[in-house]
Amino acid sequence: MIYAKITGWGKCIPPAEITNDELSQIVETNDEWISTRTGIRSRRVSHVTTAQLATVASQHALACAGLTGKDIDLVLLATCSPSTMVANTASLVQKNIGATGAAACDTNAACSGFLYALQNATAQIQAGMIKRAVVVAAERMTWYVNWAKRDSAVLFGDGAGAVILEASAEPCGLLGTKTGCDSGDRDILHIANYGTDMDKYQPSGPSDLLFEGREIFKRAVKGMSEACDDVLSQANLQLNDIDVLVPHQANLRIIQAIQQRLDISDDKVMVNIDKYGNTSAATIAIALCEAVENGLVKPHSNIMSAAFGAGLTWAASYIKWGERVTPIALSDAALPPCTQSGLELIAPAVKACQ
């Protein structure tokens, strides 16, 4: 049997930061209100495009795997904030990393996007269609934020993470997965004035990211927990077989609820929402990279991951890590220098929202 082994990992974190205290300068809130309700203490704001974030993360993942772009057969980008819709943003990432001739495709499942993309690329490798893939998740969620609305302004951040998948005879990589969508209630989490449904001849104003927090919380915990149960059953695993939980970083309370449902101790849970906020599809990709970097993921670790996003999409995945937890090589890829603070970067958008 063919497996899709994770052989490289990399991330791209924009340098400009906005702390909760800084955010309180532009919207009526404070650090205590935000941190106690969400677990977020700061978030990053990108000074570059989604494609640039995805490119740098992919370059680090390629170096980690000891590969170049020419070795890649597929570039699959998970994003709901693409740089361009036509042509797709993955094609620009493909060009930037030198993956000449590789297939390139964007996929949008919102916060569940990375796990959806991981399933897609794994299936193509297992079917023998491709041998190597870059699966990258990148988001500029702050582009959508209406800075006059406290409930959404405090939540989101920007960033990217990537993994390299390679065909292997070793039973590792994505070994169990469950994805789905509860579309009957898709309106409780959506962006109202974006896409071809809008009247392009009428001014639309700032993006309106709409959500019903309490309802989303209930559905997120239920959907992610049930998907994890399904995956554990598929893989014939028990709760105590899980070494690491890498959940979607949307809200610390949701993470803790999933952790409690799965009966996993704190030392096995990857949490970085305090530093980055909700980066949508990129949260799990970034968290997985940091779990490896921090030593939480060890050789042959059993990793459970789960996500819930607009649509309402949901996903859970069981990943078996391989032997290697250190990069084969390091990349010097980096974003261009940022000369503005986080507040300075969003100042035009804040003014437009007033």
UniProtKB/TrEMBL annotation:
Q: Name one GO biological process term.
A: fatty acid biosynthetic process
Q: Name one GO cellular component term.
A: cytoplasm
GO MF terms here are: 3-oxoacyl-[acyl-carrier-protein] synthase activity; beta-ketoacyl-acyl-carrier-protein synthase III activity
Listed under catalytic activity are:
malonyl-[ACP] + acetyl-CoA + H(+) = 3-oxobutanoyl-[ACP] + CO2 + CoA
Tell me where it mainly resides. cytoplasm
Entry's localization field: Cytoplasm
Tell me the keywords, alphabetical order.
Answer: Acyltransferase, Cytoplasm, Fatty acid biosynthesis, Fatty acid metabolism, Lipid biosynthesis, Lipid metabolism, Multifunctional enzyme, Transferase
Q: Where is the active site?
A: 111, 248, 278
Its annotated pathway reads: Lipid metabolism; fatty acid biosynthesis
Q: Domain Beta-ketoacyl-[acyl-carrier-protein] synthase III N-terminal, which positions?
A: 106-182
Looking at the record, the residues that make up the Beta-ketoacyl-[acyl-carrier-protein] synthase III C-terminal domain are 232-321
| Lipid metabolism in keyword set | yes
Q: List the InterPro entries.
A: ACP_syn_III_C, ACP_syn_III_N, FabH, Thiolase-like
Q: What is its EC number?
A: 2.3.1.180
Which major enzyme category is it? transferase
- Region ACP-binding, annotated ranges: 249-253
Record has Transferase as a keyword: yes
Question: Known NCBIfam families for this protein?
Answer: fabH, PRK09352.1
Q: Which PANTHER family match?
A: 3-OXOACYL-[ACYL-CARRIER-PROTEIN] SYNTHASE, BETA-KETOACYL-[ACYL-CARRIER-PROTEIN] SYNTHASE III 2
Q: What is known of its domains?
A: The last Arg residue of the ACP-binding site is essential for the weak association between ACP/AcpP and FabH.
- Return the similarity comment: Belongs to the thiolase-like superfamily. FabH family.
Function (record text): Catalyzes the condensation reaction of fatty acid synthesis by the addition to an acyl acceptor of two carbons from malonyl-ACP. Catalyzes the first condensation reaction which initiates fatty acid synthesis and may therefore play a role in governing the total rate of fatty acid production. Possesses both acetoacetyl-ACP synthase and acetyl transacylase activities. Its substrate specificity determines the biosynthesis of branched-chain and/or straight-chain of fatty acids.
- Could you describe the subunit structure of this protein? Homodimer.
Report what the protein is called: Beta-ketoacyl-[acyl-carrier-protein] synthase III
Q: Which organism is it from?
A: Pseudoalteromonas holothuriae
